[in-house]
Amino acid sequence: MPAERLTRTVAAPKPGIVHLGLGAFYRAHGAIYTADAIAKSGGDWGIIGVSLQSPTMRDALTPQGGTYMAVELGPEASQPRHIQIIDRVLAAREDPQVVLEAMSDPAIRIVSLTVTEKGYCHEPSTGELNLDHPDIQHDIAQPLPCSAPGYLVRALQARRAAGFAPFTVQSCDNLPDNGRVVRGVVLALAQQIDPDLAGWIAAEGCFPSSMVDRIVPATKPQDIVHVADLIGQGDAAPVLHEPFRQWVIEDDFVAGARPDWQAAGAQMVGDITAYEHMKLRMLNGTHSALAYLGYLAGHETISDAMADARMAALVEQLWQTEIAPTLTPPDGVSLCDYAQALATRYANPQIRHLTWQIAMDGSQKLPQRILGTLNDAMTAGRPCPGLILAVAAWMRYVGGIDENGHVIDVRDPLAARLKALSDGGQTPADKVSALLSVREVFSADQAEALKVPVTAAYQRLLEIGARDSIKEVLA
Fold first, then answer.
1. How many CB atoms lie within 10 A of CB 232?
2. What is the pLDDT of residues 169-219, one digit of tens each?
């Protein structure tokens, strides 16, 4: 890294937002939208970032005054931009009280979060809070929390005690009905702590859903070198992203207080359901299918997979015949045009979005990204051989051994359990049956409906591999 470190060149706006989970995606998406909104319309909407698990982001950004470079990766050139909207970064594990004090400040009107599916401590198949989750058990018993729901509830409790209005809770994660999900887990946890608090939050709080879209690969060491070469300064925490971005937000905020995001290009709507289903199923669903099948076939990135004619043909089939028929598009949106735009984005060779990265936390992602589509299609009597193959590929992936006999580093909150279930099966049918028994992922009815077709697809993956299995699906 060059001797000269990136640092702040303008003062940070006064904070109005606390963001839990200050990862690459939010810094490449919501933070930039908010910076653009302030540039257009002003307002005290600076961001206090919170790292819930590790001080790594705090340690990287603090010497840089909270600033970082966001690099747009077009097909032919990289465009760096200095993002200076973050006021400071807090490390929750080191000092949870400081985080609660920041969230309790009446100047903070929005607490947003990108904590991934597993950060909500809920059951992905139902959306309900998992009261047996160890972090939730801790947060019920202890005043200083450790989970995202715990921080939300305890900070709201402090605001109520001080006579302040609640902040708006805004999920920015890839979850269907993410506002409903976070509202549900917050109210369920508050009910355990103080039923009167739960009633106050239900009556006074706002939990707008939002749909977010931008491909943001994980930052790698070579990316840090690349950014240093671009700007001539060292940046320990740059983010890289595609040119495309979209943010659709339900316009439901406490006292109407929010940045002027529509001036920055966000869509403020009354109901995001149609946008969200379109994105989760068409983008995230095919991303997951490419992640598991592509990884098994030896493709390192999504663009590599899309350069494989069979993989690209499978994605087209998924969009046209398996996913699109389950959707009602938003007004004025063509699903065909949306699919074509996705194909172009996937093929961008500058976006090195790792199949391994997308494959992470599959037990949390499958219900929203693939299984909901399968439910609707099977109810309507439509076959979905490509999505069935994707589910089978996930099962082979979590077994921990790829097609070449190499060990897979499976990252999933249920990884050990999934591996044990797979290893415990004597036959392919046994393995599939065992994995279908995981109720956090598959309902009992769904497991019964999927047993025969997924077993057949799993068997073919073992016999002929991912690419030839795709060839059969396309035949």
1. 9
2. 999 998 889 999 999 999 999 999 999 999 999 999 999 999 999 999 989
Q: Per the structure block, which two tokens stand in for 441? A: 């992922």
Q: According to CATH, where is 3.40.50.720 located in the chain?
A: 15-269
Tokens standing for residue 266: 């966000």
Q: Which residues have CB under 8 Å from 340's CB, separation 6+?
A: none
In CATH, 15-269 is 3.40.50.720: yes
Type of residue at 428: P
Q: Show the CA angle centred on residue 186, arms to residues 184 and 189, nearest 5°.
A: 105
Distance CA 5, CA 27 (A): 19
Nearest CA among 318, 242, 282 for reference residue 470: 318
List Cβ neighbours of 463 (8 Å cut-off, separation of 6 or more): none
Cα 178 versus chain centre, distance: 11
Which residues partner with 211 through β-bridges?
248
Task: For residue range 344-401, list pLDDT tens digits in order.
Answer: 999 998 888 999 999 999 999 999 899 999 999 999 999 999 999 999 999 999 999 9
CATH 1.10.1040.10 domain range(s) in the chain: 273-474
Q: Is the pTM of this model over 0.85?
A: yes
CATH class of 273-474: mainly alpha
**pLDDT > 70: percent of the chain:** 99
